């Protein structure tokens, strides 16, 4: 038993004899600061054990006479009736609490998935057609087929098709690159329909696969693009091809003379109808990347929680020798050092599996380490502050908090926020979401226009956590001293 543990028990007993409980709520800031180093997580968790040992030494002979072995009985025995009623009362309360937790917290994740099919139109896809083309204008058969396919009942609600008059390919790709659209289907020139008609009329060989292209980037959201965007683009390509084969080509061929039709027999233009050529600008070729950008982020939240628990004893030893202000500064600094070193180990794990960190920048490993550090510091600081409150008030709440924090962070992170209810816009302010965006830039070289916002939100979480830490430490010390004082008073 350490001297600090003995002093804790004695302080609690002495204070109980000298002050009324309401006076503890009026203590000045100096005494509150002193309690920060006196009532730490580790010392409080061991003070009861210390008091118990003292009492055993003082009353050993008396306890030996008074203690009797309890009489064992069956669960349904009449002698166990009172304990059985108490058991069922506590059991029902615990089950109701767990039910409430499941309904309230798990509903957050289930809610992010609810009716997503009705919100797929929020995923905007650019549909570039020839100037003057419309769904009713047959003068532009290629663009008309494209618009008709997008407006078909089977495809209309799959994505938010956004028609636009012709513009050059570079502009279209740049718009997708800047993440203004999730993809694009575009004609490659402003007269593709005329080129096709002239090739049929003149009996010329013509590469129809170059008329319409598609572009998207899997790296923007590996799960979201592969689940919602890419399959819908493929369905549009099939719908467009069917319309060209079954309606447009027969109509164009019916307008040819017999001589023109005869010239088509020996060329490929007749047999190769236009199709959409899709291109993934940022493909995901290494599936190991899924680990750090998705599941790994969840592990980071859990890992920082372990850091809080494992350093309790070290923090207690520091509290025994440091002044209150120095102890608070120590807690702030040691936490950041812990996150820096733990994130280095986490980064080395990913490097060991040969993940390429240099797609966006040279020296990408260092960038990845810093992103991991900022993420751990942001979520770890929140875990530490809440752990102090939960440990003081009701320790089982710590597990509830961890699940709640994970659910709030991931519900709308690993899929497009646009397909979730508007309530989930709060995800943009969560640390895991912003870390996810930063890691995609690093690992896939996606659009960098949001880097400032992503880094800024992580830093804001770190600053806020460090501002709140002294108050959480003081609350923990004040609350635990009050609790121990009441316990000591009731025992006398």
From TrEMBL:
Pfam families: DUF3533. Residues 1-10 have a biased composition (Polar residues). Residues 95-467 form the DUF3533 domain. Residues 1-29 are annotated as: Disordered. This is DUF3533 domain-containing protein. Residues 16-28 have a biased composition (Basic and acidic residues). Keywords: Membrane, Transmembrane, Transmembrane helix. Coiled coil: none annotated. GO terms for cellular component: membrane.
